[in-house]
Amino acid sequence: MNWIDVVVMAGTLVGTAAGMLLVQKYASVPARENCNDVAGFIFAAVGAFYAVLVAFVVIVVWENASTAKVTTFEEADELAGVYWMSRQMPLPEGAALEGLTLAYAHAVVDTEWGEMADHHSDPAATALMYRIRDAALSFDPQGDQQAAIYQNVIQHVDGLASKRRARLNLIADCVPPLLWAALIAGAVVTVAFTFLFGLSNTWAHLAMVLSLAGLIALSLIAIKEMNYPFDGANAVRPTAFEVFLNRLPPPR
């Protein structure tokens, strides 16, 4: 939780407490107690609807983050496949392709991952992807063994390009602004509805209202942190590429 989340949480609790105390001041408890039965029925419907909305969004952002992590490991696996096949290719073609795969891995880890936090990709990494494809397609296999290597290289290069596109497709926010508006409006309505109940013990009522407001604020903060898979507390890290780079044999 960063300082923005702390400010949001504190502001929510302070604003809720201020609103609750204002209602207590200008609307008498007996008048609100007479509406408890009707307000309770409507509040149950409002709360259920909002709970379903929040649960749906949490599931969506969680699945989006999980997809991003899986896609990252699949991309690294395809890159490793290109690398190991390149070491079976004859020189100088194999060495050139091997160098390109290493350059691509370093570009993703050192540059592109940081840029993805700002919703951008790295043009240099994209250029390296094109060079890997060109190097693989330019290989002219001689004999059945090299033909089999060539087929494997092309298969892994196609998979690498596909998984890269899938990863870059995830560099946008998962929750659109319209849905954020619905989440925030629903939170305000749900919390404000609790002000209508009349309880003789003001402090007990305030404690219950603040507990609900805090829980809703925590849920929205969790959604914000998971909204974009490559930034925030739950950000996907380039672990798969780092593992690939840390387990390489000596160059040929």
Report the C-alpha radius of gyration, rounded. 27 Å
Distance between the ends = 46 Å
Order of helices and strands: HHHHHHHHH
Unreliable residue runs: none
Tell me what portion of residues adopts beta-strand conformation. Answer: under 5%
Count of DSSP E strands?
0
Count of individual helical segments: 9
The major beta sheet can be summarized as: none
Helix percentage range: over 70%
Please state the structural category.
mainly alpha
Give the overall form: rod-shaped
Query: Taking all residues together, what is the mean pLDDT?
Result: 88
Main features:
252 residues; mainly alpha; rod-shaped
Tell me about this structure.
- This protein has 252 residues and is mainly alpha-helical.
- It contains nine helices and no strands.
- The chain has helices at residues 3-26, 29-33, 36-86, 93-116, 123-137, 143-168, 177-193, 202-227, 239-246.
- Helix 3 (36-86) packs antiparallel against helix 4 (93-116), helix 4 packs antiparallel against helix 9 and helix 7 (177-193) runs antiparallel to helix 8 (202-227).
- The longest helix has 51 residues, at 36-86.
- It starts with a helix and ends in a 6-residue tail after the last helix.
